[in-house]
Design brief:
Blueprint (H helix, E strand, L loop, with lengths): L1 H9 L1 H21 L6 H24 L6
Helix pairs in contact: 2-3
Length: about 70
């Protein structure tokens, strides 16, 4: 367990980068596959479907700017 914690401390930036890239890839894929026409409608669909998840990730990355 000590080795795992030490590894996480040494590689926390890489782990965060992988999580953020995976999250944005997931959103981009769902934006591409949205069942509506037009970029604006796809973006609104994405916000309606994953709005709370997007807000949570934005609040972690940007802080209070996302909540405003």
């Amino acid at each position: 367990m000590k080795n795992i914690m030490r590894w996480l401390q040494n590689n926390s930036g890489k782990v965060l980068a992988v999580v953020v890239i995976t999250f944005f890839s997931f959103l981009a894929y769902n934006l591409y596959q949205a069942p509506v026409d037009g970029f604006g409608n796809k973006f609104v669909y994405l916000l309606k479907t994953y709005g709370y998840i997007i807000l949570f990730a934005w609040s972690i990355l940007e802080g209070e700017a996302g909540l405003v």
